[in-house]
Design brief:
- The protein is 60% helix and 4% strand.
- The chain has 200 residues and is mainly alpha-helical.
- It folds into two domains: 60 residues, Response regulator (Rossmann fold, 3-Layer(aba) Sandwich), CATH 3.40.50.2300; 104 residues, Up-down Bundle (Four Helix Bundle (Hemerythrin (Met), subunit A)), CATH 1.20.120.
- Helix 5 runs antiparallel to helix 8 and helix 7 packs antiparallel against helix 8.
Length: 200
């Protein structure tokens, strides 16, 4: 039982630092992620496993060595190949949806900042949830992970952790914007554009 194993690890005394637990499951039902996190796990991956998701999870939870000759490759802030696969290799649709994501995320980030300033748990959780859903849809895994962390902190009224995760989310979005600029993907919204779907 992975849930009980995670709880047992968390109950045990840590020697030398926290043990990171990443769930890997074939289930992708609503609420599964929350059950894993509530049991003490740190992250959640769904089978069939995508290498971009795996690399992003490892990079989130594994500190870099103190010194090394060649730094490891950094996962792209947006997994373009994964997103293309989701859209059946339709590059035009993928580009338009990423442009929509780039244009609609900044207002959500500002709404999240305001909610954290006001310590408005409901508004913060709602804004973080929207960012999480849109980020997961376009395969911006790091953004999705930090938005998820802000949402969890808001629900727990842990404002210090909420701000820490928010600052990481802002930095992650800057990396997404830089990546998009390199790919010549603008931040634009068509008048007829529909909201981005969300992956629950």
């Amino acid at each position: 039982d992975g849930f009980e194993a995670a709880r047992a690890i968390r109950r045990a005394a840590d020697n030398g630092g926290k043990t990171v637990i990443i769930a890997m499951t074939a289930n992708a039902m609503p609420g599964d992620r929350e059950r894993c996190l509530s049991a003490g796990m740190d992250d959640y991956l769904v089978k069939p496993l995508c290498i971009d998701d795996f690399q992003a999870a490892i990079s989130r939870w594994t500190p870099l060595p103190a010194a090394q000759d060649t730094p490891p490759p950094t996962p792209a802030p947006l997994a373009w190949r994964k997103f293309l696969h989701r859209l059946r290799q339709d590059e035009q649709a993928a580009t338009e949806l990423v442009s929509l994501y780039l244009a609609t995320t900044p207002p959500l980030v500002e709404a999240l900042r305001a909610a954290l300033d006001e310590q408005n748990a409901a508004a913060a959780a709602r804004a973080a949830h929207e960012i999480k859903g849109a980020s997961d849809y376009v395969a911006a895994a790091e953004m999705g992970a930090w938005a998820r962390a802000v949402e969890r902190a808001a629900k727990q009224l842990d404002w210090a952790e909420g701000w820490r995760a928010f600052e990481a989310l802002e930095a992650a979005f800057i990396r997404v914007l830089s990546w998009a600029k390199e790919q010549d993907i603008p931040a634009t919204v068509e008048e007829t554009a529909a909201p981005l779907p969300a992956l629950e």
